[in-house]
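Table S2 (text version). Query chain:
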Amino acid sequence: MNSRSNGAVLSNVRQRILDTALDEFYTAGFHAATMRNIAKSAGCSAANVYNHFENKAELLVEILRSASDEQFAATRNALRKAGPEPADRWAAAVVAHSLYTARNQRACLVANTELRYLEEIDRKRVVGSRDAQEYLFVEIAEKGVEQGVFSVPHVHQAVTAVLTMCSGIALWYRTDGPLSAQAVAESYGVYALNLVGYRPR
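Corresponding structure-token output:
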């Protein structure tokens, strides 16, 4: 086996371990999850799991950081396509954020419920892109207030309310329900405009 093939195999094993760990954290919670069960479900030995990850905290950090980075990237991509108007940018950011949550429920739910179990140093490795994403929303909302199209007295509080609302999608959305992920995300974009008191000029 050449080095490229060997690298692909290792990458596939690593991803399978991560996917299995996400399922384990989702169903059992971080504290109840074990490296032994993760290894068994991933179809490899516990020693193989430890070859890739030092402990289950490192697994959780990798899962949460990856999900946060992907959601942040989705939001930024949506903003690149949006126009300059604050309302358009606000709605685009909320729709992208909500759509990612609806399409990645397990990762988002684990991020919201299990982050608190990480030690401070590991938590800091995860929250960087979360903070950066929150800053994007704050920046848009402040611009809307400045231009007189948003009427909200406490921008940071409003952003927290909107992001909390979006994270809740992971709790109730079902792919076999009456609304598609896209429809839910677009409706949340409307709700978010109402929350900041959007007033068209």
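Notes on Table S2: The mean pLDDT is 91. The chain has ten helices and no strands.
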